[in-house]
Write a structure and sequence with these properties.
The complex is a heterodimer of chains A (about 80) and B (about 675). Helices cover about 15% and strands about 45% of the residues of chain A. By secondary structure, chain A is of the alpha+beta class. Chain A has a single domain, classed as Ferrous iron transport protein A (FeoA) (SH3 type barrels, Roll), CATH 2.30.30.90. In chain A, strands 1-6-2-3-4-5 form a six-stranded antiparallel β-sheet. In chain A, a hairpin with a 4-residue loop joins strand 3 and strand 4. Chain A is globular and about 30 Å long. The N and C termini of chain A lie close together (about 10 Å). Chain B has four domains: about 170 residues, Rossmann fold; about 80 residues; about 220 residues, no CATH class; about 120 residues, no CATH class. In chain B, the strands form three sheets. Chain B has a six-stranded mixed β-sheet with strand order 2-3-1-4-5-7, with helices on both faces. A two-stranded antiparallel ribbon of chain B has the order 6-8. In chain B, strands 9-10 form a two-stranded antiparallel sheet. In chain B, strand 2 and strand 3 form a beta hairpin. In chain B, helix 3 packs across helix 10, helix 7 runs antiparallel to helix 9 and helix 14 runs antiparallel to helix 23. Chain B is elongated and about 100 Å long. Classes of the chains: A alpha+beta (about 80), B alpha/beta (about 675). Chains A and B meet through helix 1, strand 3, strand 4 and strand 5 of A and helix 3, helix 10, helix 16, helix 17 and strand 11 of B. The complex binds guanosine-5'-triphosphate and magnesium ion. The site of guanosine-5'-triphosphate (GTP) has 27 residues of chain B, from helix 1.
């Protein structure tokens, strides 16, 4: 198990748990990022300090610091 | 006055960027703004839709939301228009627009709306994209599972719109077709208890006569209310119950929110196989291939800078011909009217206040229209979301959100629409902070003033033989204003507008070819907004300044300056003559203001303290041939300028080099950074 921000671009993982503030967790979950969801790190954009994720066929951007709050199981 | 039967309202709901506004325009023929940038519709707008059975129906375009839970006041507006808490009228039906390529996530909102008990019809939009993405959707099965009418449409091509109209028409006739009851119920008894407890505390003002609606609002409250939300109308009692249930659940090791959201998503995932067939893409999509370049660590940022450089180059040089055209047009009209009307006060008012005022507003249009054209293309193509992504680190460093970059960028053209654009941000604090610093950005109205000052103080020359000094100075001014704005944001964000950091959760839409009709419509709407909102103020000030300069009329002063002007004819050196004429102007305007404002305030307005006078002096001192004559288009620079401008000087600053002054400065004002 590892933090989402450590994953290499292109890797897939299963979301295990979400940390952080309540509102932040709710937002992510309502976007479909629930524990058990498979996600893919599409790329890291270091200029902006963000990660691009693919979840349920759509692309989302999260900040690296916020990605650190998500625990994932790489597969 | 007895109203006949109330006009039926239909709310247009859906996730951001699913094509609601495009559909709204299609159905109503109205012209709402469309953009491929999630969160473009910020206020809701209404239009009329004619249906064969139900007659005229009011269609309400609502900002996109991912769910019905709300935190900010804006989200609450969207939710109220959809679910109709109490102050806003409850819609008679909700048309939920879903993106065919992101069906499972979009269905989350559909389930929520169905739970509220309002009649629902679902429009699956962008079916033209299905084949591209290797998807297929079984619409009848989905309709059966959801229990509401489902129509596949493409709001861009117009496919399926007749079926959609018919479905909506039947639904309004017979609402039971679209009210199947909740698709999902709490599985655990604990959650059931929580929901019932909160349902009992829903305020009476929300008009929950039916149990189903009450439960839906209880679920809404459990997801939305906490100590940080900005929602209005939730009673302290309700907040208390929600907080208590949450605490209780936490003690049992449960999380209510997760259970509710999970409940809905597991309904979707359980049934997805029945209506959705996905073939994994065999090759990377176009969007992926474009993003490989535009979001590349090195290439991406260079491309971004290049795009911005292009925008500015176009703003400064591309707008020039149009500006010249507008100026000569207004000059011509002015001359014509001056001849036409009998000399006197009316003539002066029409020429020097009205036409001058309108002219100084319209002269900004080319730049504003161009900037919005660029913003429109960036939004509609999908690049704007990438810009927010690329700029997030910088924006975060000063306490702002990546999304604040777009409004701040618009601030370069005009602060008015830029401030309007801040509404796309979720949190009040971010909006306020961005609004506070936008006016510090160099808006296009300041551009002529900079041009003027730079042209007056720094003769055109080159550093290292090729870098134009004036161009560099201009870039410097822009950098300075940008840095000032960012620093102010950082300071304000840490002091006055202290608040928790908001997460950046940005959806990246696929790239699309800009839809030109919508882009042009947006340019027109924003320009119109500028003309009416800012233009009114500018025109008012011009008229006010004219009045101040004209009353009380002192013939002695007028005559004295007229005589000085007449004496000028003797001056042989054309450059000197121009500069002297300008000095007379300034002196005259100052004198006239003094007479009208009285001695006390005159000190502040007197020519020696006016920047224009000093520029005039320093300009002649360094023997630059063209001292700035007037700045009729910079609203705040009107201390001594404007209303009494003689014909030959009535030009926009920056183009103020009279025909006689075609020396270095004459050439320098135009192609500064193009060809030195
Ligand atoms: N391919 C395709 N694109 C579409 C269709 N309908 C809309 N679009 C595009 O989708 C993008 C978003 O459209 P909008 O109408 O602004 O979406 P919206 O739902 O109003 O977005 P918000 O107001 O931000 O919530 C635009 O670039 C449209 O041109 C369609 O049927 N097919
Ligand atoms: Mg919209």
């Amino acid at each position: 198990m590892t933090n989402l921000d450590t994953l290499a671009p292109g890797s897939r993982a299963r979301l295990v748990s979400l940390g952080g503030e309540r509102a932040f967790r709710c937002r992510l979950m309502e976007l479909g990022l629930l524990p058990g969801t498979i996600l893919r790190v599409v790329r890291r954009v270091d200029v902006g300090g963000v990660l691009e994720l693919e979840v349920r066929g759509c692309r989302l951007t999260v900040r690296r610091g916020e990605a650190r709050l998500l625990l994932v199981e790489p597969n | 006055m007895a109203k006949p039967t109330r006009v039926k309202r239909v709310a247009l709901a859906g996730n951001p960027n699913t094509g609601k506004t495009t559909l709204f325009n299609r159905l109503t023929g109205s012209d709402a703004k469309v953009g491929n940038y999630p969160g473009v519709t910020v206020e809701h707008q209404e239009g009329r839709l004619e249906l064969p059975l139900s007659g005229g129906v009011l269609l309400v375009d609502v900002p996109g939301t991912y769910s019905l839970s709300a935190r900010s006041a804006e989200e609450q507006i969207a939710i109220q228009a959809i679910a109709g808490l109490s102050p806003i009228e409850r819609p008679d039906a909700v048309l939920v627009v879903v993106d065919a390529t992101q069906l499972t996530r979009n269905l989350y909102l559909v389930l929520q709306v169905i739970e509220t008990g309002l009649p629902v019809v679902v429009a699956i939009n962008m079916i033209d994209m299905l084949a591209v993405r290797g998807l297929s959707i079984d619409t009848p099965t989905l309709a059966r599972l959801l229990g509401v009418p489902v129509v596949a449409i493409s709001s861009q091509s117009g496919r399926g719109l007749d079926e959609l109209r018919a479905a909506l028409d039947f639904l309004l006739r017979d609402p039971s077709r679209g009210t199947p009851g909740p698709r999902w119920l709490p599985e655990s008894p604990e959650l059931e208890h929580d929901v019932n407890a909160v349902a009992a505390a829903i305020p009476a003002a929300w008009h929950c006569d039916e149990a189903q609606r009450r439960r839906a609002l209880a679920l809404w409250a459990l997801l939305s209310l906490d100590e940080h939300d900005e929602l209005r109308g939730a009673s302290p009692e309700l907040r208390g119950v929600v907080a208590a249930r949450r605490k209780l659940a936490a003690a049992e090791g449960r999380e209510i929110e997760a259970e509710i959201i999970q409940g809905r998503y597991s309904w979707i995932d359980r049934h997805a196989a029945q209506f959705l067939v996905e073939r994994p893409p065999t090759r990377p999509s176009t969007t992926d291939r474009v993003d490989r370049v535009l979001l590349h660590p090195a290439l991406g940022f260079s491309a971004f800078l290049l795009a911005m450089a292009l925008v500015f180059q176009a703003l400064f040089s591309g707008a020039d011909p149009a500006i010249g055209l507008i100026e000569s047009l207004f000059g011509w009209v002015q001359g014509w009217v001056r001849e036409l009307l009998p000399a006197g006060l009316l003539n002066e008012f029409v020429c020097n206040a009205l036409i001058e005022g309108v002219g100084s507003v319209v002269v900004f249009l080319p730049q504003i229209a161009l900037l919005f054209l660029f913003i429109g293309v960036m939004e509609d193509s999908g690049y704007m979301a990438r810009v927010a992504m690329l700029m997030d680190r910088l924006m975060k460093a000063v306490g702002l959100h990546g999304r604040a970059f777009v409004p701040m960028l618009s601030g370069y053209a005009c602060a008015v629409p830029a401030i309007l654009a801040t509404r796309t941000m979720e949190r009040r604090r971010d909006r306020m902070l961005t609004m506070m610093v936008i006016p510090l950005m160099t808006c296009s109205a300041r551009l002529p003033v900079y041009t003027l000052i730079i042209a007056a103080l720094f003769p055109a020359s080159q550093i290292l033989g090729f870098l134009p000094v004036q161009g560099l100075l201009m870039v410097g001014m822009y950098l300075f204003s940008t840095v000032t704005a960012l620093v102010c944001a950082a300071v304000l964000g840490r002091t006055l507008f202290k608040g928790p950091k908001v997460p950046l959760l940005l959806e990246l839409p696929p790239y699309r070819m800009p839809h030109w009709p919508s882009v042009l419509r947006m340019v027109w709407q924003r320009s119109r907004l500028f003309l009416t909102q800012a233009g009114g103020v500018i025109l008012g000030i011009t008229c006010g300044m004219w009045a101040l300069l004209s009353f009380p009329r002192d013939p002695a002063v007028l005559a004295r300056f007229e005589a000085e002007r007449a004496a000028l004819v003797a001056e042989v050196d054309p450059a000197r003559r121009e500069s002297r004429a300008a000095e007379i102007e300034v002196a005259e305007a100052g004198e006239l203001l003094r007479t009208s404002l009285g001695a006390a305030s005159a000190a502040a307005w007197s020519p020696p303290s006016s920047p224009w006078a000093s520029i005039g002096r320093s300009a002649s001192a360094c023997s630059a041939p063209s001292p700035p004559a007037r700045c009729s288009s910079a609203p705040w620079a009107w201390s001594t300028a404007s209303a009494r401008t003689p014909r030959r000087n009535r030009r926009r600053c920056g183009r103020n080099c009279g025909p006689s002054a075609t020396g270095t400065a004459g050439r320098s004002t135009r192609p500064w950074w193009g060809s030195p």
